[in-house]
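Supplementary material to the annual report.
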Amino acid sequence: MLRGAGGVALGLPLLDAMQPRAARAQTSSAPRRIMFVFQANGDQTKQRFSAAGETDFVLGEFLSPLEPYRNELLFLNRLNKRFYELPEDARSDNHQQGGSSLAPFTSGAGSFPIGGTEDQTIGYVEGPSADYAIGERVIQADPSVAHRHLVYRVGDKSNNIWNLHSHAGPIGEQNPVPPETDPYAAYARLFGSNDPAAQQAVQRQLDKKRSALDLVLGDLGSLEKRVGAADKRKLEQHTQALRDIERTLTGSATGCGTLDLGAKLEVYKDDNHAAVGQLFFKISALAFACDQTRSIQFNWSGNTSNRVYRNLDLSEGHHDISHDSSEESFATVRRIHKHLWTENTKLYDLLKATPDGDGTLWDHTLIVHWNELAQGDSHSIEDSLIVLAGGAHGYFTQGRLIDYQNKTSFSDMLVSCFHYMGFDDVTEFGDARLRLKGAITGITA
Amino acid sequence: MWLLVAALGCQGTVDSGGVPPAEHAGNPGSPPDPGKPAEPGTGSDPGTIPAPGANPTPGSPASCATPNPGTAPLRRLSNAEYKNTLSDLFSGVDGVNADIDAVVRELPPEAESLGFRNSAEFLTVQSLVAQKYMDAADRIAARAAKSDGLVPCQPEAGNELACGKQFIAAFGAKAYRHPLTPEQSTRLEATFQKGLNDYGFEAAVEWVVYAVLQSPEFLYRVEAGKAGGAAGVTQPTPNELAVRLSYLFWQSTPDQALLDAASSGGLDSKELVAAKAREMLADPRSARLFQYFAEWLDLDRLEEFSRDPKIFKDLPAELPSWFQGESRTFVNQLMANGGDFHELLTAPYTFANRGLAEHYGLEPGAGEGFVRVSAPTRSGILTQAFLSTHDKSNRTSIVRRGLKVRTDLLCNNVPAPPNDVALDLEGLGEGLSQKQKLEQHRAEPTCAGCHTLMDPIGVVFENFDAVGRERSEDESGQAIVTATTLTATRDMDGPIADVRELGEKLAASAEARECYVTQTFRFFFGREVEPADACTIQHLRTKFTENPKISELLVELTQTDAFLYRPVIEVQP
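Predicted assembly:
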């Protein structure tokens, strides 16, 4: 199903490019993919739905871009993140802890002087995020998948406790994963250089890489024998990173697909925010189609984002506006989210236009839309809205709105994501205090 | 941009009545007070660096008599150190420097920790980082292999390996910052041989550079420590001490002269280490120390500086780089001229080029570039871009400016706002100034707790707008009153009239001085202060009180247990 010229324009080159891999996919069932899509600062909980029946719900104005897709969406409303079950010295501010909702673990110490307690600073969360943990299961099950997960963020480049949403863990360790913020670099990492000279030298390049990896892994192995426990863990992680690269050398995506990224945009320029997001969507679709990864975390911004949406004629930052309880400010917050939801539907169209196995990528992907907060002016971590989108192999019963009245936790929803991906043995994810029931019942087909 | 939720948040700490008492607002992670401010062992020892476990120096407090270095985690090069290191490694190799800026721009910024980006704990090599190091090495190696000045010999046809070995020994030792072990040489020679066999001599050189730049021996500062040691403590080898010095003062790899000095006994006593440190401070490479100030004061965020063009019309596009230039020149001249903590916070002058002087409305100085200009209403770093990096796109932020002072100049922790309470500030009243709105806000008991920590400090900066210009009216058209009363500090409580008085108070405050010591420790040792660092911290505090020169504090860093010693490594099975 193609919607709009954008989908057609992108769909055709993908169709040509991906025949070999797509044909291969048909011999087995198409892979299951998951993509987490983040937008910041909460919305307005009362304005999400103007009528709230399970199937006859009416989308509020800022969710209205989703109306054409409503039968392929599942709205999980009022999930509870339960952060206040954690002691004060193990949870950061709601924005930060909420920004790491995909990693429902305690926060460590040592990185930030706001939150925590008066005599102990707070740190990053101490456990893996779902995008990482799911990706890890994927590559263990199928070593031909090149990338455990991919993490993308639009806009700002610096990395801090406000915008690092992906974490490698393991449980008990702070280990934030930096996102790729440049779509051109993201593309080159997955599909190699566009430089024709470099293409010609592929074999030489491969030989050089293998030779260097041999040396570096050797040096790391020797060094691991000469350091203490904490440093050894650091070096083991480095070794794993090189093994990750090694895997991409054998499972090369060369020839799977190419993408015309168009005229090069200034990546960090305000005006290009939406366009850069769309580039990441295209790269994500191609990465899925070529089975380079099955888990992606995409972020329209960091949490607490103070991005000024000048394209909406705003002059105040998003976070600042979200702190104001006036109707005027809420109207602005709704406009920002309506804009982002409109952009999100372009991802839907793109996936629908991309053939995959016996159907399209949309049929074989679950998109999980999330936010660090429910509502910005109160910093609430109850009342979270999750929108599950995508055909997702028909795993979920869609076209419904379910109100959980804060009696089901965000972590429970993540367990459902593991189950969708085929990892039914996962019965819990995250710190025990943040969990309630395990996988959510009554939402699967 | 410094985005703070607590900036507009509230906190009602029921138990403590809102305001943390001064003793609760201490330096996070600071060690227990080691007792009387006596000279710790490491500060008063004679000549040579005592071997670990040596007899306590008479008169030293027992707890500081034996060296206690705290932890010494493996440190990956920060992106700034990586850039400087490449630059020094390839100085004299034509054309490489042009590529360095480009490759460093592609590195993922380090995860920030306590305001700094060089915390050993978070400087890891994950998949994306490893990939970027690979890409960087690719570009640098390809360029370097084609350049003059890298290979010290001419390859002989049929016996290219001989020259290759010579190149490997020289380049490898320089890149790894120590002579190669036989194992490391063997690996590099194998890499060279593979490249040579399949693609020829230039490729072999390229492959070696490519591999070296990804080796942990290059990317981390690897230390083994001297063999032996007592009670789990040893000393870095002379070579390792040279590396510690060079990354402290030059933020980069040591040069041959420094390594030679180390290997010939030139760092064998504390006095020699201090003398070398002062010598290194006089070297132009010490200008890279600005990195510390840039991260501490968030000047590194000027890259993301953005202002609402409707409100700030005709702002010069170069303003962020002028701000950088101002603080860089200011700090560098303080370092060079023995400027002290007081001058850092109170200098009634700044450095401006013609454009910035015009922007500020100051009389331009004579000469090109950033020159000293008189600014009698300004107050050192407090009125430099330190302010603007905490403002909003369309106005100043009293709360964030105050918060920055609270967290980064006083090292206090501030609680997060509570869950699910109204955090609204803007709706408090039409026509009120930001200051008045905040006063109303603090009338709410749930908001007063936190905001009392931030707002009264932030108010003194109000006569400087969100782009650093002096003004007399705020955004709402109200006359600005900077007078305020500081509370919840250890030794600064009371009324102040303006930012200059805040500067004086901070400069005289033990709390602020101790915080500055803590920040300096964190950045230069790449980790948080630990309880084991009590003697190191006490030494630094004492010395900094006696001699508050900014540059001398850095020299004193080299006289501490944390610098002169390290724990014996307990190798893991």
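Chain B has a mean pLDDT of 88.
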